[in-house]
Design goal:
mainly alpha, HEPN domain-containing protein
Amino acid sequence: MAEEQFEGENYHTAAHLYINAAINYQNAICQKFLKQIPSHKQHSDTSYFDELRNTLGSELQKYADAYKFLVGYKSQADYGTELSFNIAKQIRRRARTIKEIAEHLL
């Protein structure tokens, strides 16, 4: 769905969907490996990432950087009026990073 929105030049909607998908992957990883899902009100809280160190291994920094970038745009995607093509493209790329790493774990 996000890819369809992106290809249809609905960049803000696409970015919103990419971010939410990445958060869903994050929730799935936390549910599987930490036996809990982080509070939805605190997406930007990544203090528990150290607990995922063994799970993510050498991908931890790449994963954490991508996730932090995405949640940095969450409020703007949820409540803002428009995200540009360039920002949406960066969001898509980082959401793909989350997806690729998560799919190997889940």
